[in-house]
């Protein structure tokens, strides 16, 4: 029996994935649930296991190719009879809700004699446009919302946008940005050129987009972490024995941040058009540095977890992020993000907001230094706490009051919570 292996739907808003590695080659045997290939999407890198045991007989898409969801990427051969199509079990994503019915897509534009064609009527607001399609559209000065889509629910695919460009569909509304100048190196210069990975490209796209969307402003507070440092030293052995996990500093930051977000809900919001959307759930993204990039798994309803619960959850997410074992739902739905450049020795950082959130908190390095306490010089464990926020909706006074509350929560952390 021949089994079609398709690009899985890695989350409700994911429309395509980029193949970054094949673990098996044509002719290799593979067991059920054994990793078959690896993909990178807008949200997560993941290893995709084989849906059945069999032999790999055909690979339809190579490394680096971006493939729409549910398109066949490989064929397996088993010992049974009829052909079937299977989505790899590794998608482990909840079955997405059916896409809302869209108005029928406009007919494909007819090529004009001149450089431009009549643009198609715009589709309904909210149609998903992938970063790949958006990038191509931007390079050619095209509004992707005016391109007829042939994908599910009228979605514009990569083929749609390329066909539109090939037929002369460049709009005059926006000139395409000038490409970065090519750098010519002098003879004898020692350089090595490598293409960006799929994840690196997506990070670059998202960061530029965030800078364009949000009016970034930054605030920095100094925090005395002596109390928290001492409590962690006191309880870290207990946590490993009692809970089987390592007590880190991150749960302390998540806990006090949740207190601050409840007090200042606009920081746990997003902007949609002219509306501010206040999120009732506190879903905290915790940035994890990887050898090949950065990923932000999300602790859902973090305010409902104890310090022990936060410790277990954060450590589990970080470990599986490094092993490319995260599920799509675990990197979606964040309402506020915490990043910790201080673990590498940085004094503090001014991070870029993760869209569509309106703030991100940065944790600086903790180091002992002399400070004035009650008119006397004392050695204390000090740290800088920063926050980047979207000044469209978060005023400086609100941001500073939030950080002041976080600072107070850390300096006076309730030991009974441990």
Distance between the termini: 56 Å
Q: Class of the largest domain, according to the CATH hierarchy?
A: Alpha Beta
Mean pLDDT: 82
Number of domains: 3
The CATH architecture of the largest domain is: 2-Layer Sandwich
Low-pLDDT windows of residues: 89-126, 170-177
Order of helices and strands: EEEEEEEEEHHHEHHEEEEEEHEEEEH
Shape: globular
Beta content: 15-25%
Give the helix proportion (percent range).
10-25%
- Provide the CATH topology of the largest domain: Chloramphenicol Acetyltransferase
- CATH evolutionary superfamily of the largest domain: Chloramphenicol acetyltransferase-like domain
Oligomer status: single chain
Which structural class do you get from the secondary structure elements?
A: alpha+beta
Report the radius of gyration as a whole number of Å. Answer: 25 Å
Q: Please count the beta strands (DSSP E, at least 2 residues each).
A: 20
Q: What is the overall number of helices?
A: 7
Characterize the largest beta sheet: strand count, sense, and whether it forms a barrel: 7 strands, mixed
Task: List the main descriptive attributes of the protein structure presented here.
418 residues; alpha+beta; OB fold (Dihydrolipoamide Acetyltransferase, E2P); Chloramphenicol Acetyltransferase; 7-stranded mixed β-sheet; 7 helices
């Amino acid at each position: 029996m021949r089994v079609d292996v398709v690009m899985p739907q890695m989350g409700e808003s994911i429309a395509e994935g980029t193949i970054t590695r094949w673990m098996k080659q044509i002719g290799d045997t593979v067991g059920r649930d054994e990793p078959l290939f690896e993909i990178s999407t807008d949200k997560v890198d993941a290893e995709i296991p084989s849906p059945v045991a069999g032999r790999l007989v055909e690979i339809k898409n190579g490394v680096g190719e971006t493939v729409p969801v549910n398109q066949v990427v490989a064929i397996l051969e088993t010992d049974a009879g009829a052909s079937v199509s299977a989505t790899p079990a590794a998608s482990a994503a909840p079955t997405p809700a059916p896409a809302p019915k869209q108005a029928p897509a406009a007919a494909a534009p007819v090529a004009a004699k001149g450089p431009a064609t009549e643009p198609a009527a715009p589709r309904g607001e909210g149609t998903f446009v992938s970063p790949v399609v958006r990038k191509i559209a931007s390079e050619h000065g095209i509004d992707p919302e005016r391109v007829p889509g042939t994908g599910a629910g009228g979605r514009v695919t990569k083929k749609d946008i390329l066909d539109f460009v090939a037929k002369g569909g460049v709009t005059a509304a926006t000139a395409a940005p000038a490409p970065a100048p090519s750098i010519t190196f002098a003879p004898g210069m020692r350089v090595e050129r490598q293409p960006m990975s799929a994840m690196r490209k997506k990070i670059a796209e998202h960061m530029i987009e965030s800078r364009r969307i949000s009016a970034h402003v930054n605030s920095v507070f100094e925090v005395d972490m002596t109390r928290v440092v001492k409590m962690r030293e006191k309880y870290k052995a207990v946590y490993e024995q009692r809970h089987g996990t390592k007590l880190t500093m991150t749960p302390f930051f998540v806990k006090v941040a949740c207190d601050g977000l409840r007090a200042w809900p606009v920081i746990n919001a997003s902007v949609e058009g002219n509306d501010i959307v206040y999120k009732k759930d506190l879903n905290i993204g915790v940035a994890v540095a990887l050898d090949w990039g950065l990923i932000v798994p999300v602790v859902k309803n973090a305010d409902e977890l104890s310090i022990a619960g936060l410790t277990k959850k954060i450590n589990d997410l970080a470990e599986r992020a490094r092993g490319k074992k995260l599920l799509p739902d675990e990197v979606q739905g964040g309402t506020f993000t915490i990043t910790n450049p201080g673990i590498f020795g940085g004094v503090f950082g001014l991070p870029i907001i993760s869209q569509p959130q309106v703030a991100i908190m940065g944790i600086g390095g903790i180091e002992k230094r002399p400070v004035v306490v009650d008119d006397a010089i004392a050695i204390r464990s000090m740290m800088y706490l920063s926050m980047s926020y979207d000044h469209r909706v978060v005023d400086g006074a609100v941001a500073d009051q939030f950080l002041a509350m976080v600072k107070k929560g850390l300096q006076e952390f309730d030991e009974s919570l441990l």
